[in-house]
Amino acid sequence: MEEKHVKLGETIWNYMSMGHELKKSDVILVFGSHDRRVAEYAVELWHQGWAPWLVFSGGLGNLTQGVWDRPEADIFHDIAVAAGVRPDSILVENKSANSGQNVIFSYKLLNDNNIPTSSIILVQKPYMERRAYATFMKQWPGNIEETSLCVTSPRISFHDYANEEVGPMKNTVEIMLSDLYRVHTYPEKGFQIYQEIPPEVWEAYEKLMEAGYKWKY
């Protein structure tokens, strides 16, 4: 990638990462993805005592369909158990196909198991934090005003994020373009709450699209 495009991508990355401060909670809710580091980070949070329950949510989504042969939540579950998390501290929701379903199906699973949900740590990829937050705040079936939410992600910088699994930086940039467009358009569809996009962030989006970058999904 050209350096000017890297800087534009970093502008979007910084906006999409929300930087919430962690706080002790009832549940660590982990959205599935194509990045196993999300599961590994959630396991760290559990071992550190941030919440007693881990919920892994995700079937096969846009980035894992045809790539993984098992649901994202099942793979994340196995990562957690291998890293020493007690199986009786884990719940698995492996049918959801998008972020809205992650929220709705996980709520039902927690409710069915009589697990408190007054405070939740939501774990996603760094550049998915904002979209995950906006979706949760719109789709959570419980009383959102009585639910404390913080969103977090693996502590990885934009420049260090690329690896063999998630692909090169260009791949991440094109996924971010897709996600930012959804942050922009999904509120009017009723999928997410509205969030203001600063002019410089939308300008970065437009410049990357004009340069030939495309939505990844």
Topology diagram in text:
Layout: H1 3-16, E1 27-31, H2 37-47, E2 53-57, H3 72-82, E3 90-93, H4 99-112, E4 119-123, H5 129-139, E5 148-152, H6 169-189, H7 199-210
The CATH superfamily appears as: HUPs
- Helical content stands at 40-55%
Count of DSSP-assigned helices: 7
Identify the overall geometry: globular
Hey, roughly how much beta strand do the residues contain? 5-15%
Say what the CATH topology is: Rossmann fold
- Total E-strand runs: 5
Encode the helix/strand succession as letters. Answer: HEHEHEHEHEHH
Q: Within the largest sheet, what's the order of strands?
A: 3-2-1-4-5
Q: Low-confidence stretches at least 5 residues in length (pLDDT < 50)?
A: none
Query: How far do the termini sit from each other?
Result: 20 Å
Structural class: alpha/beta
CATH class: Alpha Beta
GO cellular component, one term: plasma membrane
InterPro entries: Cell_Envelope_Assoc (IPR051599), DUF218 (IPR003848), Rossmann-like_a/b/a_fold (IPR014729)
